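Reviewer 2 asked us to include a model.

Predict the structure of this chain.
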Amino acid sequence: MMNKFSPANCPQTYVNQNMMGPNVLRLVEELSRSLELWPGMRILDLGCGTGLSSMYLATEFGVEVVAADLWVRADDNARRFAAAGMDNKITPINLDISTLPGLGIFARDAFDAVVSINAWHYFARDALFFDQRIAPYVKGGGTVAIVIPGLRSSDAETRPEIHALIASGIALFTTDRWRAIWSGSQHLAVNQCRHMASGRQAWLEWQKCDNDFAATDAAIRSDELGQQLRFMQIIGRVNK
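Predicted model (structure tokens):
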């Protein structure tokens, strides 16, 4: 069945209206090629924004999605999902994963997998955070799959623009450093940590859309700085 929320099929005007950063549909499509998901699974889309990634996952795999975001109102996402005919597959919630109760509103082992697109680097910069705040709510053997911006090399951390972002609490690291962080978890085995092929296209589509934040991002990202930034995907399996 055709996925109407794939990058090839979703109208660009709709994507532009709902983008909050580099085109999430490009990123989640590439990530999903490395995932084993099937109908009936319950997926947490952590930091879902306007829910584009949630709608893609629910349509592509027939999974049930809990679409969690801190900033986008759950009732706004509920209206968006209903308009798309997805309200029976996606449950929107507002959630601050960094403060209690966080995922404590759910039962232990509530989810078969966690997916997070362009959000993880804002809240989960160490293994302890995952072990305490996320692992208890994912089934043993479950999948954690994320897409985040990162650095081509550790030398980039010395650039003033990047150093300022890292100092503010945003985790912009290399794949090697992220692999080391996840390997420090008691409950997470790293299966994959690599740069993505779709990152540049996702970024260019964000730059082209009529959005004040996109214009700001384009203005501060020099060509030289852009050479240091890469989107990466990290996939792990939960051990219990």
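The longest helix spans residues 52-61. Strands lie at 42-46, 64-69, 90-94, 111-117, 138-151, 188-195, 229-238. We have added this to the supplementary material.
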